[in-house]
Predict the structure.
Amino acid sequence: MLKCGPGNAFALLATAAFTAAGCGGGSQFKNAPRPPAPVQLTGVIRDDKLTVSPDRVGAGPVILFISNQTQQAHTITLDGVDTKDTVGPVNPLDTAKIQQTLKQGRYTVKAGSTQAVAREIKPASLSVGPQRRDSSNQVLLP
């Protein structure tokens, strides 16, 4: 049977103190909300116009996939509030991706060509509304 004397009590107290110091403590990670989950938009370049769907989203991260369904290569430009992003040229029947965090406002998505064309391709319009909710409570996100 173990007797609890002053030496054993001190050892027990020191062990408990070291164990408690290792639990929890301070954390260097802030519990800030996660940004909104990215929204995927699709676009199609045709001979007469460029379309984007959906054409209305809330502000936050956006991934725009555009398919070129014409016979010429085109450069794609996303132009709007504090951003001008260009990708391409995108070859016929190929796709491109533009990834941006968009602020509230109006944006234009244009398809340009290095060759002279008989008719300009009508650009698409994208309306970005107020900030989307954070993704803190969404599961299956990276």
